């Protein structure tokens, strides 16, 4: 019974949340001055009143906000995210075109941050007051404190201009190679943006795993393991790490939303053709349907990420598995 | 039968010969990466203006005429043209070998359709407004009938303004949502290749281009950039071959110090962007012409162009860019004179208060515009303080916010950049005509300036086919507007092209690189 009820409750909650996201965002966007038509007209170098009125009517902007909201919600309910005024294309198509780039960037950065962060965290936890530990603390705090666009620009200057080993922008070269070399090209373009985005999170993970490991390593069962005469590596990585990882997993789930926010800036600096840059451009252009579509899509992604976190808990910690089942 | 065979043979031969490289000409082949900061909504320049669309649109579509760097029309799709004595009919004789990219021949019907579509849909309504009808006596002849003489018409036939679009593709349904806007079929030197939104547009060589031997390049990538700093790095690194519409003095200076880079600074005059300080002429105390003149006298234009803009932008003294054949420099220059400014303010009854300030004004800024916006506004603040005017900067977070304020007259002063678009009828009249005071419409007469004589002159000049008479009318217009100061003119916004020096044949037309890149080649 509980097995069936839980996913249903989760689903209902998610739908409610998505609806709230749609309505809130829709109303928030209306508060910003100007509308998409004013931007389109602006970039065209001005237009007559007739053309403007024609465009407003075509985009449904001549209706009341409430009417527009009802139309929008009813469309979203059947999976239609609307039509982008600015980009002249269905929003869903636009988002789907950009989503892979963002997912690639976000997941690479996240993986890098988690693996690297946890690794240095664990290493420094073994000698909490050692040199490595202090070094890690300082470096990761700098990464955490520096604004991400600044980090990005500095990396660009260092590794694209002064010592040009990485490309400056985009996801592929123009005149792009085909086949296997295409993936190599993408990976080459991915390095700087992923490192930039990861730099903010490495700090959190290393600090978190360090604290958590210090805590875990002082537990009785670790002493028992050592007393049994297990090699230190096995004690730390098998008995310690698995328990120490739980807060890290929580963090991954929590940070998923922030990751998209960070991606917006990184994508703009590195000209990465993802959702974040699309969001940024769409906000500046008041492209309501696109902004709303992206916000909805990212909130769904965050919900999915949270669900996955929940699953991950069960994998890492058998106690949760048995308790909840 | 024999004739037919000969004909087939001849046709076969021409098609066989055509794709061969021109013998004495530059090397064929290669690809070009052009950067674009703006995002094109789509690539159909018949219904969308702006440089982001014009760049691809002028490659994809051909137009009746082209313009040289000295404002002379040249044949393109029209091999010759004729304006009747009374100026009421313009006849175009089209080439007979132009084909659209789908193989369908281009005829007078397509030209008629394009003119009608542009007239009905293009944001620049004044461009073709006097066109009353278009006749097509045969497949290569187009006769345009006008309600009154319309000297701006020839310029309006430039690639950037009059792409000839195929009727059989765009003729059905609502043109605004026609899918071919995103994947156009034209008759220009390059055809649509691939578009990856947010990354690039690839254009491929049109092997059947009606001008034999052209284009030289195999492909053009128009790569979109979100951040100008990243674009500069990409260019310096050699990833990008050409930056069109370069206007920043700082970037121009930086690139001009690079080896192997050429910067064409005398190009794109028809775009004619002017950076100016606009006044809300209905809002006290700016409704008093003496106050506006006082502000004009208080500003040192030379300091702005020579020091702030480092000499990379030339000064502008009036509503028509100085490089236009219709511009005059016989206008009040408002050479800086702080005493005169102070006495004009006294005369206007604006005496300083106890704190030395006569009144406070705000200056609005467009977002992201540092060199021709914020820096100048900061300068105005300290400069105008010397004559007792307190300036507050009102920076807006983004364009729509600014446009909303200015178009609803919720401002005192604003810095702005407005384009001439070649002929005053297209890009100048809108700022000064009383009939164009339209609330909510940005880049209309948002100064709310009204002078019956100016209205008269502009309407008369729009119909005057005699160049000398037309120049005289515009000269009087420029003198009045400059003295009335609805706007204080600051500088011409450069539309330079930066490109690798190995690149030859970069157009130096008045439309700059917003014209066919068919003769561009790698040396």
TrEMBL record, chain A:
Name of this chain's protein: ABC transporter permease
Superkingdom classification of source: Bacteria
Subcellular location: Cell membrane
Cross-referenced Pfam families: BPD_transp_1, BPD_transp_1_N
Membrane-spanning ranges: 7-29, 99-123, 135-166, 186-203, 244-270, 290-313
Similarity comment text for this entry: Belongs to the binding-protein-dependent transport system permease family.
Primary subcellular site in the record, as a coarse category: membrane
Domain ABC transmembrane type-1 positions: 99-309
Topology within the bilayer: Multi-pass membrane protein
Alphabetical keyword list: Cell membrane, Membrane, Transmembrane, Transmembrane helix, Transport
Gene Ontology cellular-component terms listed: plasma membrane
